[in-house]
Structures are given as structure tokens and as C-alpha cells.
């Protein structure tokens, strides 16, 4: 007989030992004495008796097993002495424990192998179907045309799939490198609604979605007709929905009743290098500051990847939330939860893409974002894509519907125009820091003073934009009926904000129509000579500009320091106003705030502007729609302007005080008086005036 061990016998012995361990728990069996033998059994078969370990002995051996699962003779003897056991008992316990652990690991591995086998079996069935010409798409379930493709076309698809798999694996490795191990990344639903713990499948879903969105964004930015066709007035390019469905067949399906989609593309050369642009887009604070007129609030919920080492933003992946606004309480904001992905491509082009992670928002964004190409002299060419589906605009007020329905309110043209203007502002500010300027009216004599006043003006602009829209973080109350020009108010308490006077602040806003182009209204409102006609702060007195800092190529983009002259010209009665005006092809702003003379002296000498208290007021001026046929179409404007006027007033210096009705009535009277004064002044100046102005009628 061969001396080689029989594998079947060994397996049977292992199973018997495992069953013995599971039945006896942590007991061991010892051979009984001869007196205990059963006379009916054969003499050579001994009956074993149980020996049950105490709880203390089990805990000690469990702890030792974690540190050393294979103790030597010395360790077993020492452990036995401490626990009152023989070395052989300790040896048997450790053998049983190792067998038990091995069996558990084998069962777990078998379960994983079965799952992988089922997946391979399903893939095999699908591939066989593809070879027979009846393949189906695993994503949408529709027919796949693999059987009709040529061999070269199939090879191209296989190469593309391999490349996408490598891209996903690379981003997965990046996400694991920067502080997030597998199993520790939150899913989109977890991040946005904090429902349950993280799962690896959610991480993979987000990564795959971001990679696919990047591919789609690049194709949409680089493809011309027939995907993008001229608009009816040839002023821009619009997306051909039928061609989009053919190019990106991912089962869009019909839109719900009452919802619509928007898609737009714009390009411009901006005055900023590509590195700084990418940094602005990937930093939520800088991004929301630069686009303060569009982004009412934003936050980063989770950073899945910070990018590749040595190339900081390449591969950066963030889950974010944001609200996009039109500067008027009459237009609801668009809330969005999305993943933002940044990537540098082989040709040196950078791309930043956003894509929605769920369908619970008021709007869902298809891949949107921009391509950034480096140009000489530190400039960049930016191509912007905005693609929104299933957006509900039924709550938009009627006077803003032509603007919103046309896609101008939230479209790519507004994003790119704002970016271009803000890049000019930043470039002008940097130039002011490095060049000692000439004295403007004997006030600003140093680059530090200009830097401080520009920083103060920037805070004023952000405060105005944050308080003029319909963000869900603030609630407007209408004082009268349901007309467009009814005043809406809200209150907040200022306690520990050094940039706001302490007390109860009442904000009031109203929107109204003027049959004049936005640029005409803008020039009228920012003109110091016409200010006495509508501004209650001037009280009919002369307003003089004593300092002026240009913020761009357009003369309307500037920061001004105004002085309201008193009757006796005494400094104690003099009022100073800080004002910033800005304009681009999609809208204009005039924002201002009264400032303390003593505090402004500190700022003008280069002091810290963060402690200067400001309550900004001003105007947001938008077109009433795209230029066209005098408002005969719901998608076309009349060439007039939609003006939102907003005030912030300190009604009580005690934060715990109650708001009085008289304070509300005073602010209501103030804003209505300002609106009527503006209407009367521009009617007197422009009715029947310059050629080309529309007739003086309300749409």
C-alpha cells in the first residue's frame, strides 16, 4: 500500500474537526480512563470526554491568537501556566481556531467567486448574442448594432472601451491616494441627503458619470453643425435636439409635462491665463465670488480627489451644491447638486465639467462647463456649454418669461460675459497694485489705498447680489397685491458681523419695466449729474465724483467715490457714497452704499476695509428678452429693460428689538418713491427723444 496520504481522507478529517469545533465551541476532548470505556465498543476505540474552557481562558487565548496565531512550544507552555491549562490543550485550541478561521475565509472567497462567475456568465451570454447579431445595450436595453459593424469599427469601439476603463481606474487610484480609501467615499445620495453610509458602488458610479460627462462636454464643444445650428436671429448657436439624441443615445426619454430644456454655447477670449481660471473654477469661494450675479450660494459637499501630484487640479473631483439666480425676487433660483470634474488633455487644453447627480432638483444639468485653451500674452480662449433639462420655470413672473424662456437668463452667454468682465476687473486691480497712480481729486495717493477701496467695493457687490435674488435661504414678503412692481421685503439680524452695522436690517426690492435699452438706463443711473433726480440720499443736492478707478475697457465698469455737497459745505454735514457700476452684453449693475467719512480715510490710506460697515443698495438692469419683433413672440423681447431696485436699511440698532410697522411703511415709501422718480425722470428725458428707442408702453 502506498504511504501517500489520501486527499479525500484529509478533507474528511478537516470537515470532522470543523464540525467538532462548531459543536463543542471552545471545548476540547481528552481520552477517558479505562474504567469509563463502554464494554459494547471495540477495545481499541476510546470514548473522549469534554473539557470546557472558562470565559477568561477563551478571552486570553483569543487575544493571544490575534497577535500570534502560531505559538511555539515555549509560548504554549507559558500561556498554559497562566491559564491553568496543559500545553497540549493550548495546542489543540489554536489548531481548531486556525481551522475555523480558514473555513470562514474559504466560504467568503467562494461567495465572491460565485458572484464573479455569474457576472462572467452574463457577459458571455451577451457577447454570444452580439456575435449572432441580436445584441442589446446593457444601459438602456435597446438594440445594439455590433453585428452590423465592420471589423475595423468593432476594433475602434474596443480600443475606446479600453481607454475609458484605464481613465476610470486612474481616477479611482487618485481618489484612494488623497485620503479616501475604498469603501470610505460617500455616494451622491448620501452626500446630498445624508441617508446612509458610503458604498464602493456609489464611488464607482460618480467616477464613471464624471468621465462620461467629460467626453460629452468635449464633443459638444468641438462639434459644429448639425449638432449646433444658428438661432432664428443668427445671434448664437442652439442645440438641435434630434441630432443630440442621435449623437448621445443614452435614453433621455420624454420630458415631464410643463418642463423644458435649454442648451447654449458661447466662446470668448478672456484676459486671464489658464492656470488662474482653473483655480477659480475649482475653488468654491472664488467661483461664487466671480459669478456673484449668477451664483447666489454654493458649497463643496465632498472632495473625492484633489488631483494628480505635481499637477494639482488635473483629475480633481468634487461633489457640490449651488443655486443659480437672476437678480430679481420674481425669478425662482435653480437648485442643483452635481459633481465637478477637472482634467488636462494631451493637447494642453483644460476642461471643467459639471453634471447632476440626482433628479430631485428644480433643474437637472446635462454635462455643462467649459474648455480652456492657453493663448499668447497670458490670455485664454474659453468655450462655455450650458445644458439643462427638465427645468420648471412656471413660477417665473410674466415680465421675466421672455428673458428666461429664451435661455439668456441662465445660459452660456451670461456665464461667459460675466467671466470676461470679471477677468478685466481682476487684471485692472492687479495693474493698480503695481503702478503708483496719479492723484484722483486729491484723494487716492497710493496703490495700497486703491487696493483697499477695490476690496471694499468687491464686498459691497457680493452683499448686494446675495440679497437681491430669490434664494431659498431667504424669504420675501409681498407688501401689496400681485403686480410686478409690488415691494417685497425681508429682515435679518446683524450681531457679530463687523462689515454690517449691528441691529435689524430690512431689505426691500421691486422690479419694473422701462421701454429703454439697458445701456441707456445704466448710463442714466450711474451718472453723477442725474443722481439728484432720483436718489433720496442726495436730497436734491449736487453730487460730485472725487475718485474714479477703471475696472475694464468699457467706461461703465468702474468704482467711484462720490461726495454729496451740503448747503453750507461744512464737512460735518458732508455725505460720501461708494459706488461700483459694471456692464456687459447680458446686463448691468449699479451698486452703492453710504460710507463713514472717518472709516473711508482709513481705507484710502491703505487700511483694512473689512471693518467698514456697509448696507449696499442699487439696481440690476436686464434686457426684457432677446432683441426681436417688439414682443410679439413669447421668446422675444421688446428692446426694453427690466430693473430691480433693492435697498438695505438699518431700522433699529438693537438686534433683539421687534420690527415695527412704521419702519416697513417707511422703507416701502422710500423704494416706491425712488421707482416713480426714475420713471418720471427717464420719461421726461427720453420720451420722443433719441431715435431708436422703443415706444413708451408697458409690455
Briefly, what is this?
The chain is α+β, with helices and mostly antiparallel strands and 699 residues long.
Largest sheet entry: 10 strands, antiparallel
CATH class of the largest domain: Alpha Beta
Tally of contiguous helical segments = 16
Number of strands: 21
Number of domains: 4
Beta-strand fraction estimate: 15-25%
Q: Are there runs of 5+ residues with pLDDT below 50, and where?
A: 1-12, 18-46, 175-199, 433-443, 629-634, 689-693
CATH topology term of the largest domain: Alpha-D-Glucose-1,6-Bisphosphate, Chain A, domain 4
Structural class: alpha+beta
Task: Give the topology, please.
Blueprint: H1 7-24, E1 28-30, E2 49-51, H2 55-67, H3 73-83, H4 87-131, H5 151-177, H6 188-193, H7 200-222, E3 228-230, E4 237-239, H8 241-247, E5 260-270, H9 274-282, H10 284-290, E6 295-305, E7 317-324, E8 334-344, E9 350-356, E10 364-365, E11 368-374, E12 380-391, H11 401-405, H12 412-434, H13 447-466, E13 477-478, E14 488-494, E15 503-514, H14 518-526, E16 543-550, E17 558-564, E18 575-584, E19 587-595, H15 597-604, E20 617-623, E21 641-652, H16 661-686
Antiparallel strand pairs: 1-2, 3-4, 4-5, 5-12, 6-7, 7-8, 8-9, 9-11, 10-12, 11-12, 13-14, 14-15, 15-21, 16-17, 17-18, 18-19, 19-20, 20-21
Amino acid at each position: 500500500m502506498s504511504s501517500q496520504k489520501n486527499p479525500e481522507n484529509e478533507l474528511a478529517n478537516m470537515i470532522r474537526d470543523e464540525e467538532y469545533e462548531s459543536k463543542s465551541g471552545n471545548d476540547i476532548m481528552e481520552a477517558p480512563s479505562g474504567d469509563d470505556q463502554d464494554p459494547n465498543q471495540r477495545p481499541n476505540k476510546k470514548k473522549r470526554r469534554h473539557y470546557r474552557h472558562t470565559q477568561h481562558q477563551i478571552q486570553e487565548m483569543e487575544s493571544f491568537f490575534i497577535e500570534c496565531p502560531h505559538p511555539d512550544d515555549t509560548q504554549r507552555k507559558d500561556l498554559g501556566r497562566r491559564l491553568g491549562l496543559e500545553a497540549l490543550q493550548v495546542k489543540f485550541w489554536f489548531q481548531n481556531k486556525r481551522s475555523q478561521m480558514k473555513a470562514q475565509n474559504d466560504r467568503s472567497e467562494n461567495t465572491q467567486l460565485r458572484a464573479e462567475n455569474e457576472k462572467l456568465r452574463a457577459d458571455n451570454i451577451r457577447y454570444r448574442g452580439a456575435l449572432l447579431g441580436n445584441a442589446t445595450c446593457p444601459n438602456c436595453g435597446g438594440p445594439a448594432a455590433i453585428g452590423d459593424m465592420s471589423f475595423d469599427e468593432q476594433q475602434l469601439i474596443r480600443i475606446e472601451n479600453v481607454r475609458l476603463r484605464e481613465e476610470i481606474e486612474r481616477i479611482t487610484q487618485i481618489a484612494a491616494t488623497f485620503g479616501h480609501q475604498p469603501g470610505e467615499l460617500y455616494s451622491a445620495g448620501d452626500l446630498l441627503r445624508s441617508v446612509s453610509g458610503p458604498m464602493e458602488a456609489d464611488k464607482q458610479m460618480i467616477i464613471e458619470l464624471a468621465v462620461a460627462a467629460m467626453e460629452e462636454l468635449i464633443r459638444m464643444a468641438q462639434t459644429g453643425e448639425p449638432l449646433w445650428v444658428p438661432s432664428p436671429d443668427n445671434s448664437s448657436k442652439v442645440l438641435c435636439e434630434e441630432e443630440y439624441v442621435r449623437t448621445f443615445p443614452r435614453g433621455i426619454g420624454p420630458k415631464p409635462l410643463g418642463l423644458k430644456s435649454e442648451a447654449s454655447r458661447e466662446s470668448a477670449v478672456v484676459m486671464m491665463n489658464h492656470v488662474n481660471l482653473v483655480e477659480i473654477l475649482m475653488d468654491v469661494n472664488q467661483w461664487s465670488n466671480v459669478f456673484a450675479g449668477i451664483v447666489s450660494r454654493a458649497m463643496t459637499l465632498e472632495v473625492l480627489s484633489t488631483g494628480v501630484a505635481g499637477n494639482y487640479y488635473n483629475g480633481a473631483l468634487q461633489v457640490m451644491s449651488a443655486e443659480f439666480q437672476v437678480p430679481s425676487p420674481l425669478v425662482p433660483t435653480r437648485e442643483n447638486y452635481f459633481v465637478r470634474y477637472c482634467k488636462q488633455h494631451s493637447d494642453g487644453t483644460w476642461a471643467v465639467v459639471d453634471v447632476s447627480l440626482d433628479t430631485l432638483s428644480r433643474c437637472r444639468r446635462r454635462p455643462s462647463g467649459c474648455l480652456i485653451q492657453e493663448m499668447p500674452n497670458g490670455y485664454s480662449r474659453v468655450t462655455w456649454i450650458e445644458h439643462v433639462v427638465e427645468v420648471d420655470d412656471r413660477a417665473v413672473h410674466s415680465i421675466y418669461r421672455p428673458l428666461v424662456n429664451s435661455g439668456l437668463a441662465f445660459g452660456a452667454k451670461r456665464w461667459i460675459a460675466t467671466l470676461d468682465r470679471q477677468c478685466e476687473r481682476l487684471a485692472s486691480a492687479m495693474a493698480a497694485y503695481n503702478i503708483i497712480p496719479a492723484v484722483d481729486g486729491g484723494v487716492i495717493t497710493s496703490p495700497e489705498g486703491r487696493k483697499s477701496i477695490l476690496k471694499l467695493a468687491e464686498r459691497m457687490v457680493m452683499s448686494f447680489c446675495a440679497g437681491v435674488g430669490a434664494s431659498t435661504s431667504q424669504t420675501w414678503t409681498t407688501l401689496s397685491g400681485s403686480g410686478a412692481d409690488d415691494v417685497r421685503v425681508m429682515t435679518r439680524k446683524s450681531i457679530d458681523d463687523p462689515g454690517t452695522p449691528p441691529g435689524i436690517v430690512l431689505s426691500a426690492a421691486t422690479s419694473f419695466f422701462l421701454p429703454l435699452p439697458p445701456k441707456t438706463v445704466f448710463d442714466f443711473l450711474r451718472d453723477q449729474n442725474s443722481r439728484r433726480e432720483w436718489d433720496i440720499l442726495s436730497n436734491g443736492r449736487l453730487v460730485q465724483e472725487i475718485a474714479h478707478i477703471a475696472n475694464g475697457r468699457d467706461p461703465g465698469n468702474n468704482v467711484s467715490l462720490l461726495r454729496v455737497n451740503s448747503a453750507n459745505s461744512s464737512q460735518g454735514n458732508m455725505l460720501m457714497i461708494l459706488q461700483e457700476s459694471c456692464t456687459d452684453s447680458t446686463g448691468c449693475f449699479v451698486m452703492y452704499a453710504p460710507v463713514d467719512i472717518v472709516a473711508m480715510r482709513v481705507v484710502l490710506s491703505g487700511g483694512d476695509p473689512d471693518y467698514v460697515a456697509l448696507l449696499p443698495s442699487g439696481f440690476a438692469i436686464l434686457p426684457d428678452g432677446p432683441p426681436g419683433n417688439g414682443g410679439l413672440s413669447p421668446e422675444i423681447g421688446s428692446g426694453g429693460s427690466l430693473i430691480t431696485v433693492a435697498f438695505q436699511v438699518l431700522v433699529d440698532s438693537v438686534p433683539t428689538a421687534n420690527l415695527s410697522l412704521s419702519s416697513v411703511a417707511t422703507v416701502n415709501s422710500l423704494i416706491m418713491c425712488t421707482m416713480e422718480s426714475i420713471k418720471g425722470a427717464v420719461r421726461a428725458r427720453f420720451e420722443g427723444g433719441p431715435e431708436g428707442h422703443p415706444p413708451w408702453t408697458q409690455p
